[in-house]
Amino acid sequence: MLNRIGNIKLDLYRRIINKLNRRVYMKNSAVWLPNYSIGADVLQDLEHICMKYGKRVLIVGGKTALEKTTPKIKKSFENSKLEIIDFMWYGGECTYINIEKVANKCSIDKVDMIIGVGGGKALDTVKGAGYKQNIPVFTIPTIASTCAAITSLSVVYTDKGDFDSFYFFEKSPIHIFIDSEIITGAPAKYLRAGMGDTIAKHYECMLASRGDQLNHSSGMGTEISKMCVKPILEYGEKALDHCEKNIDSFDVKQVILNNIVSTGLVSMLVEEKYNGALAHSLFYGLTILEHIEKNHLHGDVVAYGVLVQLAVDNNMDELMKLYDFYTKVKLPTSLNDIEVKNDYEYLKEVLHITVNGPDMEYLPYKITEDMVFKAINEIEKINKNT
């Protein structure tokens, strides 16, 4: 059977599942929420906000991100008592080795604070280094495809780019500087993928927490999760159009805030067991198909997983509402959109891994491989009939 599947990276995914099952759950009830600001001129406040935390600053990020942000950062630090020690590339991958390299740089140069610039992997590297050195972290996201800028964890990979583990911290970054002008100038596909991942946060935490008596934090998080859907459905189509035209509009800002802030707040507020469900588990199952992560962004594939989850849950009204929106913004609605064959034998191992993933451990009912495959085909029928 594995020969027929061909390019499935089964051993890799088994390592992923093993590491996911060893996730550390925070045992205290403390909730740390960051501050954030958004706008085209938001980096003007960088020096004013950071000066309360020391004098020596290290800027770390991706190469393109540093290129885009350095002029604004330097302008903010003009005539400042703060000293920029260096602009450092984060290493290209969020690994424990790169986290250690940045942490060592902070130690050797006696850095008081660290500012992370870029996408999720760069920001996760910076957060890990700041945690190791016990120094304040500030973030400047340059794309809005994840909530990494605001959350108190890092997703760590191997040197080869394969998932390694989650690295949890007690506190999130102190302040997130969301430069809407820079994010709007990034490829629109990242904003779209962020919308898919954000939408999933609501449907997954609502399914996982269904029937439970929620504590205050989880109850607040699930209520906030409604903001992961409504504004995106309202502003998402215009926001993508404006992003493609480099227009830093009200609509773009609303989607950016949802992708980064709404999702991040939900992730930090709800109990860890509510932070995932079928949509993400199907994504992890599909990643054993080699082309998935090479050709498709995380949020795009997770968005498709939301449709499958809704079909399994027999929530067809919500499914069709999202389906109509997906077709407008070109999020995946079918197996063909993610280059996957509709064949049970081809999908057998994907289905097996999906239903046995850690995100499926705390759901209100058992979901089987047959249920997922049936849901996939219900969505295929919708694609044919519309």
Architecture overview:
With 386 residues, the chain is α/β, with parallel strands linked by helices. The chain has two domains: 2-10 and 187-385, Dehydroquinate synthase-like, alpha domain (Up-down Bundle), CATH 1.20.1090.10; 35-184, 3-Layer(aba) Sandwich (Rossmann fold), CATH 3.40.50.1970. Helix content is 53%, strand content 12%. It has 17 helices and eight strands. The chain has helices spanning 2-5, 10-20, 46-50, 63-76, 96-108, 120-133, 180-184, 188-208, 216-224, 230-244, 250-269, 278-286, 291-295, 298-312, 316-329, 344-355, 369-385; strands at 35-39, 56-61, 83-89, 113-118, 137-141, 153-157, 163-168, 175-179. The strands form two sheets. Strands 1-8-5-4-2-3 form a six-stranded parallel sheet, sandwiched between helices. Strands 6-7 form a two-stranded antiparallel ribbon. Strand 2 (56-61), helix 4 and strand 3 form a beta-alpha-beta unit. Helix 8 (188-208) runs antiparallel to helix 10 and helix 14 packs antiparallel against helix 15. The radius of gyration is 21 Å and the shape is globular. The model is unreliable at 1-10 and 13-28 (pLDDT under 50).
